[in-house]
Amino acid sequence: MSKELQVHVGDRLDDMGRRFVDTWHRAERGELSDENAERHVGFESLELLVRVMTPRRMELLRQVHRQPARSVRALAQALGRDYRRAHEGVRALVHAGLLDRDEGGLHADYETVRIETRLAL
After folding, report:
1. Cβ 37 vs Cβ 2: under 8 Å
2. Which domain does 69 fall in, by range?
3. Cα separation of 49 and 13, whole Å?
4. DSSP code, position 101
5. At CA 36, angle to CA 69 and CA 33, rounded to 5?
């Protein structure tokens, strides 16, 4: 499990490129493993992050982090929420890279979220 999810807001293309190249070189040197794997997610703007990470979706994410769910229905039931709304939230979080969904169900395999923000005025 990756300990930290790094969320980048307002990154420029050259910032993303630098991270990619740095990771590539570290992988070539054999410095990357499952134990020190990094996970990065990017948002174009703070407004987009706020649109995706609503308080209700944060509730979904926290629940999945505490107890991975086999299905959206199981997650909705655990939270006492409507299936359709839970499904919309899960879909948005998966699409943004904040939540994982596979044959085992839903999971958030990180302990903390670090958000780096670059605001354009």
Report:
1. yes
2. 4-117
3. 18
4. E
5. 95
